[in-house]
Amino acid sequence: MILITGASRGIGKFLMQKFSEKGEQVQGTYFSTSPGESHMDVFSKVDISNYSEVSEWVNRVCGPNEKIILLNCAGGNYNATAHKADIKKWTEVIGINLTGTFNVIKSVLPLMREKGFGRIINFSSIVAQKGIPGTSAYAASKAGLWGLTKSIAAENARKGITINNLNLGYFDIGMITEVPQEMLAFIKKEIPTGELGNPDNIFNAVNFLIESDYINGTSINMNAGLY
Ligand SMILES: NC(=O)c1ccc[n+]([C@@H]2O[C@H](COP(=O)([O-])OP(=O)(O)OC[C@H]3O[C@@H](n4cnc5c(N)ncnc54)[C@H](OP(=O)(O)O)[C@@H]3O)[C@@H](O)[C@H]2O)c1
Question: Does the model's pTM come out above 0.90?
Fold first, then answer.
């Protein structure tokens, strides 16, 4: 069973389609973007920042003794310089990207530990690595995934569970499509290839991590050499 949070848009949606085409059993979450009535058998409405909603979802869709792979794609963003930032919006981003991701991991871990198998892949960002003005909430939330990953990897390594991060650069999908053209041109100029990443790279990396049992507690940078 592959669980994908944030499967209603962007990267999560793309991975859901790819794994469904591959014949995998997949369950996804949406929050504000409905995937449409015809997809409700494989989608659930879940606010990942709400632990009880997350826990209910995981325990409802995962059968007993099932091999579980978790792709933590759900994410939010808030751009503001620190001295002007709205505390509520800042905290919301931490609540989704960091606490929300933890909520899902905490919910799947008992099932994974019982089975003696698990793969957890978190989606972090180059924004946590480079120091980009206006991104303190997003950068802090994504940097937090690094420490969380290290700790949880050490706790569960003897249970057949791996947890890793993909530190994404700028891909031609999802939240990047909302970046204004002028800013996008600036970003592209900085990327060594001059191009946004093809999402197939993400699918390949996810498959690689799923198939690897000795890669644990680490991060893979996927940014064409930008960092
Ligand atoms: N695209 C890139 O180039 C890039 C680069 C670096 C890192 N990333 C990371 O990769 C992941 C996917 O990015 P993306 O570009 O595909 O983002 P996206 O298109 O903005 O999609 C975000 C997804 O997160 C879901 N979501 C937001 N708040 C939620 C909540 N409270 N509870 C549950 N789901 C929630 C959204 O669901 P609804 O629409 O249904 O509300 C949506 O499905 C994110 O973690 C992002 O930070 C992306």
Answer: yes
